[in-house]
Amino acid sequence: MNSNQLIVIEELRSNFLNEVNNSNSISTLTTILLNDSLYRNLLDDIDYSGEDDYSSFNDVEMFYLYIHKQRDLNEKKNRSASTKKEYLRDLLLFYKQLMENAHHFELAIEQITGFQLFKHLNHRHIRKYQEWLKDAPLGKSGKPYSVATLNRKTVIIKSFLAFLFNTKYISIPLHEKVLSSSVRSNDRPNKEISSSEVIAILDYFRNNSIVYGILAVLATTGIRVAELCKARVSDIDYFEGDYWLTVIGKGNEERQVLIHSNVLQAIINFRKRRRLDFKVGPGDESPLFTSAKGKAYNYKYLSNFLIRKINAAELDIIRLRKNPITPHTFRHGFALISEEQGVDIRKIQESLHHKDIRTTMIYLNRRQARKNNAAHAWKNSNVIQNI
């Protein structure tokens, strides 16, 4: 990291406590801390001491060390840039909330110096923070966070606090008092979508080559929208009569998904609409799907764009649904339709790249419960006919 960037970090360290009401402070600090060029310098400082001594560091540097911590010599097995960004934003928001609402947690913020807030926390502060976070109107439409959002934030915060304790930056095992926020099946929004619903939605957008092209790929491959945004033209190849798209999933692990011939034509039509060529081969490293400006889509932008388009469609299946359809709904749909076609659950798990088959089962459990309901045996019986 160059001297100008170091100066910026020093300024952010000294001013952050005074900028907690400035929404740009988290965005700015996130951008700076994502640069990993300072990481080895900090490791050198630790090594020169002859022992794992983190006492001279401050909270910002501990954020930095935690985010960029390497677990493997293979870079693909370490945190991706997008994961680092999500973790940083959640951790900096956690930090900002502690400072902005210190009185709720009985935290004497005015006594903290040297940008070492975490060294002043105890179990009571963590308990009161979680009590506050559970009910605070911080979610969508001014409502509290969903159980799934609370669970994600809790996992990240607990992991970070464990890192602080294991490195002896703090002396109290704060992570041991962080309550879990596990997601039960009833807490999960219903993301079921049937084959007839998928066909109806795709048919509705058939003349919109942009939306149709993207949805055709999501529905027939089960890939995540973030994986679609990373795909390049050169990631499509031809093997033994089929087209395959190589995508990079969670943990930077690669897998291949089958691109049916009519879906490939939908991709070609998308690119024609964008005035882009398409040729299978290793030469074209440009994004497979691009915005109107010719840039790779940001996955959050694309997700929100698709949600708006789909849920504004004049279809009864949209109007009658309790939960909106999202790009991730089509991932669930891929699992459900695959099961309809007689595909074994292990093959569905592998195709979706789920590490744990229980995740795949979550996609299928609601339908399985309906199929296995004892009331089916009543159909056409004397009992039901006489009720």
TrEMBL record:
SUPFAM superfamilies: DNA breaking-rejoining enzymes
Major subcellular site: cytoplasm
Pfam families in the cross-refs: Phage_int_SAM_1, Phage_integrase
Keyword GTP-binding appears in the UniProt entry: no
One GO CC term on file: cytoplasm
Lineage of source species: Bacteria, Bacillati, Bacillota, Bacilli, Bacillales
Keyword field: Cell cycle, Cell division, Chromosome partition, Cytoplasm, DNA integration, DNA recombination, DNA-binding
Keyword Cell cycle carried by entry: yes
Domain Core-binding (CB): 55-165
InterPro entries assigned: CB (IPR044068), DNA_brk_join_enz (IPR011010), Integrase-like_cat_sf (IPR013762), Integrase_catalytic (IPR002104), Integrase_recombinase_N (IPR010998), Integrase_SAM-like_N (IPR004107), Tyrosine_recombinase_XerCD (IPR050090)
Name of this protein: Integrase
Subcellular location as annotated: Cytoplasm
GO annotation terms (biological process): cell division; chromosome segregation; DNA integration; DNA recombination
Domain of life: Bacteria
Boundaries of every Tyr recombinase domain copy: 188-376
Gene Ontology molecular function: any one: DNA binding
Source organism of this protein record: Neobacillus notoginsengisoli
